[in-house]
Amino acid sequence: RLPGREQYEELLVHGIVYPAIKRALAVEGGSRDVLKEFVQLLGAVVREFPGRYAGIYALAPRDSESSFFMNVLHIQPHRRMRALAEFRRVLQARPMPQTFIVAIFVPLFISMLHEHSAGLRKKKGEEDEDADPGAVDEDSEKNVAMLESLIQCLAGVAGHLKWQRYYWLISTLLKLVKKFQFLEGTVVRGVCAILDTFHFEVGAEPLAQAEVVEEAKRAKPAKPTAVHTAQAVASGKIGGRAPDERQDE
């Protein structure tokens, strides 16, 4: 007897495709172009199964011009900026499941932080000594604007996290500085923005700091790469393993 449509969906889409997408974010040394394809695949999955992915369905309209997943890694900077702005709008409008935040969006945004910080650093290193110091560098301005938008996105998701994952996010960012010193300025701004979203009542619930720190000590450090620094975040190789996703499903 052949299984019904629901069984096929559970087995193929939710049991194979979606886990593969999460693994793509965690693959060390992964290609940015491959990551882009997986993110777009996630958009197609979300669009076709709105009931299963209701928490992020608003990010995947059928109009590709408006889809977060189609534009967040687009080659055109203005489409990336528009996708990030749409993410913040959706995040403010409705709660987002922490499973998606930790497994998908945090590693994606940190990977983009690394990319644009590296681009800004490279641009500064290539500056011509005879160049006009008052000239406006359009590429540098775009990188700076993108970094600020990404920081706002990370701060936005931090405001929706429970303490254990909030602490994990800050630890993850701070550990990046030890491996990539050129990220220091970006990370400091990001951590400050996240601290501004502190939304916990001290003493209202136990802060599982010791448990998170112990997990961070057990985690293996990720090897430095130029493309996917934060792709290892999803697998816990930088900043400690993310808390178990299943607790929020």
UniProtKB/TrEMBL annotation:
It comes from the Eukaryota. InterPro entries: SSU_processome_comp_20 (IPR052575). GO terms for cellular component: 90S preribosome; small-subunit processome. Residues 218-249 are annotated as: Disordered. PANTHER family: SMALL SUBUNIT PROCESSOME COMPONENT 20 HOMOLOG. This is Uncharacterized protein. It comes from Eutreptiella gymnastica. The lineage of its organism: Eukaryota, Discoba, Euglenozoa, Euglenida, Spirocuta.
